[in-house]
Structures are given as structure tokens and as C-alpha cells.
Fold this protein.
Amino acid sequence: MNINRRHFLVMMPAAAIAWKYVLAGAPEDAPNYTMSEHWWGMLLDIPKCIGCGNCVRACQAENDVPNGYFRTWVERYLVTDWHLEHPEVISPDGGKEGFPVAQEEANGKYFFVPKMCNHCADSPCTQVCPVGATFIGPDGVVLIDPNYCLGCAYCVQACPYGCRYIHPEKRVADKCTLCYHRITKGLTTACCEACPTGARQLVDLKNPNDSIHAFLKTHDVQVLKPQMATSAKAFYNGLDGSVR
Amino acid sequence: MAQCDKTSLAESDTNFQTIWCDEETVSAMNGVEGYMYPNEVRLYWSVLIVLYPYITGLVAGAFILASLVRIFHVKAVAPTYRLALLTALSFLIVAPLPLTLHLGQPQRAPEMYFTPHATSAMAMFGYVYLWYLMAVLVFEIWLDYRREIVLLSESATGWRRMLYRIMTLGSNNISERSLAIDERAGWIITLVGIPSAFILHGYVGFIFGSLKANPWWNSPLMPVVFIFSAMVSGIAAVMLLYMLTTKLRRLRIDMPCVDTIAKYLFYIFIIDFSLEMLDLVHRIYEADESFRSISFMVHTKLYFSQIILQIYIGTFIPLFLLALVQVKKLSEAARKTIYVVSGCLIEVAIISMRWNVVIGGQLFSKSFLGFTTYKMSLVTREGLLMSIALLILPLFILWLLVKLLPPWPDQESGKIHALPTPVS
């Protein structure tokens, strides 16, 4: 092949970019799992949540989440008649060890709200990543490539739900993966498995037999901060208007 | 983790409530008041990210001042033309440093260029930066200095001769015709450079303004405010540098020059302040769901940096002083003092503004139910000392550049022309 200097100079950047893709490698093997056959989400049933913190502990153990950071956490709301828009919210250590006893004389209602990455279909976090290290897969799970992330924290700023953090040791962005290593093997997530009341349910919207379809038809299900238009896939049953 | 302070918002008129907290929790909660999502308690963008828009702004502002001479034929400010270009270059070289130092994985920074994510404002900024650095600033400076570089490559000795020879890039033709082409090309580059400078800093504003998750940042006015504040800070910086370098060279300050710069500074500062006030009034009048939270923050955690430093000290005082010069005939000494004081206060205002945007935007919870505290470290990679070093570094680079490419006439060879001939 006759390549002159001009052609060589033109081809060099293209070859460099191609080499970067080769270095990035192929995705991890998951036998019997076809990404395009799934569209994962999570159903969070607020009336069922008892604030035990099992989910937080299970998540931290399963995913080696560092202390003080949370892939999932539980909040306790107290909404009083006078402060409908300004509830009192607590989440001591992410609700990991449960909550203090509620005040009996409190004039309002208490309830628990489990929080996690919403795995938004139109996620602002993946939009802003400067290198595409965080992305949404064909199965609807928003993931981060820790070997590629710069640790710039732009995604942390862009997430409206506060679900991301910079891992203090790995120094890259981290968040809920929907226990991807488990769900691709046909298991459910650690938090769902640990929940004693079934307040969390992994759902697959592409599976016609998933009970989520019937549930959505018969319940008032909402997402957090719908005004953000992120097409969130964390579906909340019984969500109070004061929850943010 | 995320509870409230005992002396909390309940005492304020915001009706935020003090909620469950015992003594141990209070001491362990790192200055959190009200409720923060647990991952929000720490700030992820530090003082280095405050420096990044500040330094980039100085670049854009300095370049706009230079373009006044070349494109808009404002001959009075010509003595600052080359100094403005070199200032812009010095700060532009340093601009990516705070960003890179802040990264968790700084060694991966080049990935932004190799495999950029097309929808990311930050990734595209990398290209805007590179375009501005190489296609505008370095090219314009090279064209402008080419004649001197060629002459110096012949007259200098030793390593300097070698350096100047490299800098000629093998282009030794300094005939009249060749210089006329340089002049024409330089004019075109400056013309392209003005929108490029606007894009450079507008883009910095866009990085913040386009984040819908954060109401303190999310505003279409943000890029415009950033552009005007950039012009203010850059013009003030070049004015101060010109006065300082002239004093150091024991020469007389060209008063018509600094008077003209101050006039432009005054007008642009008025536009900048008006835009910021428009943003503020809009927020107050609209009073959306984030307003109570943000208003509380401005009246407490940002009170000193925003109300006192940025607005009272950094804006009202210099605006009053600069207005005074416009309406009253003052002595030369008084005007000089006013320009130095105003210039310094304006820099304080703009760096405070960057602080209020970057740090302020992370002090309140996206739940709008609480606030956290920023604790700046001292000697860490993202600490105070590093920030000071990053502010001094461009001045050191400028000193080197001035030694290498003297921006004023009658220096060294005595052959250098500081003023480009405007092309009509």
C-alpha cells in the first residue's frame, strides 16, 4: 500500500481513536442474558416500608459501599397540617440502623421513603458525562464504567435526586447499579431480597408476565420530581406530594 | 448523617423545623442544617472550580480589551494591546489546571479529547478551549510578534537565539508585503476571536446554567452574566497590570489610555450588574419551590460573600467611584487611586461571584430542606494554598512572556512597534 505523508497524518488520529475503542474492551460476559429483552425499573411501595434499614445494610454489604455514602437510603417524613410543603425529614446514617422512636404527640403523619438511583431513561447524569463513562444500557440500567470515569463529579451535580457520589477510594463516580451482577444472572437486587415487607420490587417492563403491569393499572403510582422530565424508572406507590 | 442543627432554621422566619438530633449526631453531622440527601453533605466541587471560571473569565475579558484596539479602532487603549494578549495567554495556559487537579483521575483527562461525549457541555468545552488557545490566541500573538521574533532571532545570542529561531517556525520573510498579509490575517483572527472569546466564557456559564437539577445554577441568563462578568474582570485586570508594569518600568502612565479603559469598564460593569439584578429580581418575583431555600442561604451562608463582598464592597463602591470619574473633573493622582481601588474591588467582586455560584450551588439540598457547610482545606490538592499558587502561576507565566516578547515599545532592540496598524 502506498501511503504518503499526508495520508499518514490524516490516518493517525483516526487510528488513535480506533485503538482507544479496542482498549476499552468488550462488555463482561453474561450467559443467557440478552440486554434488549429487558427494561428494568424498581417499584417502591411506600405504605409497605417500615424503615428497618435492611435494604441499606444489604446494599452496603453486597456492593461494598463506603461508610457515609449511599447507593440507597431511607428517609422518614413527618408531614404536619401546617407544613404540608415543608415536611420534617430525617435519615440518620441513611436509615441504615433504623430510626428513633416517633413522637406520639406529633400532629401529622409519619411515613418512610426508600431512595435510590431512578435509572432514568432520559437521565441528566449520562447527558453531562464528558467521556460517556456513565451510560444507560439497552436494558434500561444506568451504569458507570469505573475504569473510564474521570471523577469530575459533573454527573453528581446533574442528578436531581442526590443519588451519586465520588467514591472516596476509587475516586470515580459511584451509585446504584441495580445489582447488575445479580440481575443479569436471574437474581433480584440485594435490597429487594433483604426487604421483609416487599416494599421494593425489581420490575421488568419488557416482561409481559411481570406483575408490575397489573400493579400500575390498579394503583396510583408516581415518580419523584416529575417536573424534571427524566423518565425515571423508580416507581413509587402511595407517594405523598411533600416528598422530594 | 443528615439532620439538623439545634440552633437551626426553626429560629428563622423560614419555618424550617428543628428535627431529631441528639448531641452526638450534632457533632457528627459536619455543619448540616435541616435535611440534606446523605450524599450531598460533602461538596464535590471545591474552590478549584471557583478558580476555573474566574481564570477563564480573565482570558476572555483581556482579549476583548485587545480587540477594542484592533477591530473597533479605540486607539486610546493601544498601549495595553499586547499586554492584554499576553495576559490572556498566560491565564489561558493555566485555565485547565484547576479542572485537572480537581479530577478524581487526572491522568484520564485527555479522554475528553480522544473520546468526547457529544451531549456533554464539559466535553465540548475542551474543544472550545483548544480552538481558542491554538487557533485564536497563540496564532494572533505569533502573527503580531512575527517581525520582532525574526529580528530577535538574528540579534539575540545563545539559547535565546535558538528559542526565537524555533518561534519563527521557519518563516523569516518580513518584507512589507509579508507583514501586510500578517496584519490582514491578524485582523481576521481577532474578528473570529471576539465570538470565540464570548463562546469560551459563555460556555463556562452554560456548564452551570444548563443543569436543571440545580435551581441556583439553572438559568438561561447564566452564560450572558458570565460573559459580562468576564469582560469586567479581564479589563480590570489588564488595567491594573498596565498601571503596575508602567510604574515598575518607572514610566508615566498614559492617562487617556486608563481613562478610556475605566470608561469601558464602567459601562460594561453596569450591564453586568443589571443582568445579575435581573436574575435576582426574577427569582424573587417568581419565587418557585426553591426560593425559600435559596433565599435563606443568601441571607445566611452566602451573606458575607454575596451581599457584603460581591454587592456592597465589590460592586457599589467601584461603580460609585467610576461614576464619579465620569461626572467630575478629578486630578490625575485621584483618578489613578480610583482606578487602582476600583480595579482591585472589581476583582474581589468577580471572584466572590464565582464563589457564590459554584460553592453556593452546593450548599443547599436539592430536597430544598436543608443546608451544608463548605470547609476549605489548606494544603491538600484542592486546598487554599493550591488555589493561591494557581492564581500566582499565570502572573509568573506573564512575566516570562513579557521577558520573551516585550509588549511595549523602546524595549530591548528599540525596534518594536507596540501598536498594530488598524486595517480598515
